[in-house]
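Hey, resending since the last one bounced:
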Amino acid sequence: MALIVLREIHHQYVKSLFDEGIINDQFSEIQALKSDCVVQLINAYCVDVGTILSELKSCINLPDVDFSGFAAQAHKIEDKSLG
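The structure tokens again:
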């Protein structure tokens, strides 16, 4: 019985987050995946962003910073974060 109540509370909470625009349909898609797939997605994201951040660090230490290239790299992180 308690499990049913907890599931309903969870469902209502997720619905309220969706209604407020905090989460979107991607949340439901990710939630539907098996947990090991989600962990793999998160790990891949972290590795990709870590690589981009390393590239940004290298760019910023150059005497003549290519700000357009820097912005392009930063935009890659934004794209990855949006899904």
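The mean pLDDT is 85.

Sorry for the duplicate.
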